[in-house]
From TrEMBL:
It is found in: Secreted. The keyword Signal applies. It comes from the Eukaryota. Pfam families: TIMP. One of its GO terms (biological process) is response to cytokine. It comes from Periophthalmus magnuspinnatus. InterPro entries: Netrin_domain, TIMP, TIMP-like_OB-fold, TIMP_C, TIMP_CS. Residues 31-155 form the NTR domain. Residues 1-30 form the signal peptide. Disulfide bonds join 31-102, 33-130, 43-155, 157-204, 162-167, 175-196. Its main location: secreted. Belongs to the protease inhibitor I35 (TIMP) family. This is Metalloproteinase inhibitor 2.
Length: 223
């Protein structure tokens, strides 16, 4: 009898251990996202703004299907400029409460950020760790200029992330992003200084320049 109870207890413990491991793995997977070039992040976002973060608070956001309370972090922001999305004021941005579920931590000392995120059905802006969020002062001059027009010009292009050599593209409407294999960083030269732009023949190529590219440019142009 004791042996049977012991086997039952062991079985329960094994099941609980498996469930715990599964839960940890699910949390880890919950915030898994592929690196994205700033242009990709811009094109994939509903809203891209420059804003100053002035405060934060944890709020209740209803209950999940099991009746557990859902928490959200509400960041109060003073918007400076809209680069993409509805031309209206966003004075609050929402995110998950922890990084385990992709929550974003922003400094609330009036620091300025470039914030890209998603627009919910109720009109609110939500952000995750997978979105492109950077201190404004940390952006390169090219990145700042590209937010106005250049990134949008390349939204029909595909940026292929090269993770190991050899790297190839599957068609002329692609740009090969090689920062990781060359610099071991996703914030390298191409991310900071280049945009993938569609040319007049519908092919795409990396562009670097201080002005919007000419209509029929053929090669990379230097400033």
């Amino acid at each position: 009898m004791f042996s049977k109870m012991s086997r039952t207890a062991n079985s329960v413990l094994v099941t609980l251990a498996i469930l715990f491991i599964w839960r940890v793995e699910k949390l880890a997977e919950a915030c898994s996202c592929s690196p994205a070039h700033p242009q990709q992040a811009f094109c994939n976002s509903d809203v891209v703004i420059r804003a100053r973060v002035v405060g934060s608070q944890v709020i209740d956001a209803g209950n999940d299907i099991y009746g557990n309370a859902i928490k959200r972090v509400q960041y109060d922001v003073k918007m400076i400029k809209v680069f993409k999305g509805p031309n209206r004021n966003f004075d609050m941005i929402y995110t998950a409460p922890t990084s385990a579920v992709c929550g974003v931590t922003l400094e609330t000392n009036s620091k300025e950020y470039l914030i890209a995120g998603k627009l919910e059905s109720d009109g609110t802006m939500h952000v995750t760790l997978c979105d492109f969020i950077e201190p404004w002062e940390g952006l390169s001059a090219t990145q700042k200029k590209s937010l106005v027009q250049r990134y949008e010009m390349g939204c029909d292009c595909k940026i292929t992330h090269c993770t190991s050599i050899p790297c190839t593209i599957s068609g002329p409407a692609e740009c090969l992003w090689t920062d990781w294999v060359i610099e071991k960083s996703v914030n390298g030269n191409q991310a900071k200084h280049f945009a993938c732009i569609k040319r007049s023949d519908d092919s795409c190529a990396w562009y670097r320049g201080s002005a919007p590219p000419k209509k029929d440019f053929l090669d990379i142009e230097d400033p």
